[in-house]
């Protein structure tokens, strides 16, 4: 009798890993994060550090309680969640609020469902919504930018930049229909969260991920179009009430949501058609919440709502199985 040595099926492998993907996303987001620190100073840096430390500590505790390998804490997923949450918070957020939100995101947004790959909702956005509901005052106190000034003696840092005496300002989303300074929106020279600091840098980071094959362009393009089209139509009907589509895209967390949040591989659909529907739904919900809701920003709520619909989208828009009868009959009929 012949002896057979069964081996694994001849599947192809991209040569990358979950850890590599996570750190590449962190790398793509880093320029916008560092630019946010440059604009807002020490308070923004405090928020970033608080979120990162809280995420790593919570990750280690959860792994220990589940008796899992502690090395999973440095696979980049917790760091990415911390960075996304920090980017969605105002720079003036107290450090303990940011730390609490990140612990909530890691523990109840990720590990309570079984850890990485099992969470139905984006953990960072779950933490963001929880903080907005529990700490509405702290999360709606927007710090004005305080750029360092170059003098003959070198860089001069203001008290606001050092976190001693900050000045509050209104975010552009508070009066969206009055926005006409496109340069300020592109470069992020206005009050807001660190994720609203530069639509240009965030878009470049997103294009980098598409180039590296980390994400596909279906969700970002569908989200931006789902936001642009209804906003543009409403603006044409009543420009005095509704902001233009370009203002919606360049302001708030639209760019961050399109390239870094809605594209989460775990909580978004897998098929191209499903991703287009998912992204378009996010964009439409963002416009509806911004235009008619109680909150000026709607990215976190829109993404979580569409996260809940991901299983349904995957069920009805999943691709046909290779070799299925329906595909065979369609191909035979075409001949």
Q: Helical stretch count?
A: 13
The computed structural class is: mainly alpha
Assign an overall shape.
Answer: globular
Query: How many angstroms does the end-to-end distance come to?
Result: 44 Å
User: Unreliable runs, pLDDT <50, ≥5 residues?
Assistant: none
Secondary-structure map with pairings?
Blueprint: H1 18-40, H2 42-65, H3 77-87, H4 95-107, H5 123-134, E1 149-151, E2 154-156, H6 182-187, H7 199-211, H8 218-237, H9 245-250, H10 254-261, H11 272-292, H12 299-317, H13 325-334
Helix pairs in contact: 1-3, 1-7, 2-3, 2-4, 3-4, 3-5, 4-5, 5-12, 7-10, 8-10, 8-11, 11-12
Describe this structure in words.
The structure is a single chain. This protein folds into two domains: 18-140, no CATH class; 170-317, no CATH class. The protein has a two-stranded antiparallel sheet. The chain contains 13 helices and two strands, in the order αααααββαααααααα. Strand 1 and strand 2 form a beta hairpin. The chain is globular and about 75 Å long. Helices cover 56% and strands 2% of the residues. It has 335 residues and is mainly alpha-helical. Its EC number is 7.-.-.-. The modification FMN phosphoryl threonine is found at residue 171. InterPro entries: NqrB/RnfD, RnfD_bac.
Give a short overview.
The chain is mostly helical and 335 residues long. It has two domains: 18-140, no CATH class; 170-317, no CATH class.
């Amino acid at each position: 009798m012949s002896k057979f040595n069964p081996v694994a099926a001849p599947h192809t492998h991209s040569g990358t890993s979950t850890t590599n993907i996570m750190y590449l996303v962190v790398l793509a987001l880093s320029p916008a994060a560092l630019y946010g620190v440059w604009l807002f100073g020490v308070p923004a840096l405090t928020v970033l550090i608080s979120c990162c430390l809280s995420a790593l500590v919570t990750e280690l505790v959860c792994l220990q309680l589940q008796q899992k390998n502690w090395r999973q804490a440095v696979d980049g997923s917790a760091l990415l969640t911390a960075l996304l949450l920090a980017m969605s918070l105002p720079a003036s957020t107290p450090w303990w609020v940011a730390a609490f939100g990140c612990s909530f995101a890691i523990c109840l947004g990720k590990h309570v469902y079984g850890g990485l790959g099992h969470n139905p909702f984006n953990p960072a956005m779950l933490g963001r919504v929880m903080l907005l509901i529990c700490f509405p005052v702290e999360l709606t106190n927007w710090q004005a930018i305080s750029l360092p000034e170059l003098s003959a003696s070198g860089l001069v840092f203001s008290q606001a930049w050092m976190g001693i005496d900050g000045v509050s300002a209104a975010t552009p989303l508070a009066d969206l229909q009055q926005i006409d300074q496109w340069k300020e929106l592109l470069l992020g020279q206005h009050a807001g969260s660190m994720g609203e600091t530069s639509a240009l840098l965030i878009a470049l980071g997103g294009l980098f991920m598409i180039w590296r094959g980390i994400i596909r362009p279906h969700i970002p393009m569908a989200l931006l179009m789902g936001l642009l089209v209804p906003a543009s139509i409403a603006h044409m009907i009543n420009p005095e009430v509704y902001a233009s589509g370009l203002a919606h895209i360049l302001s708030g967390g639209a760019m961050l949501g399109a390239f870094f949040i809605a594209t989460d591989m775990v909580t978004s659909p897998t098929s191209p058609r499903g991703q287009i529907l998912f992204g378009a739904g996010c964009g439409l919900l963002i416009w509806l919440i911004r235009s008619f809701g109680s909150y000026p920003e709607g990215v976190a709520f829109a993404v979580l709502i569409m996260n809940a619909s991901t299983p349904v989208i995957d069920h009805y828009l999943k691709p046909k199985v290779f070799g299925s009868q329906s595909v065979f009959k369609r191909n035979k009929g075409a001949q």
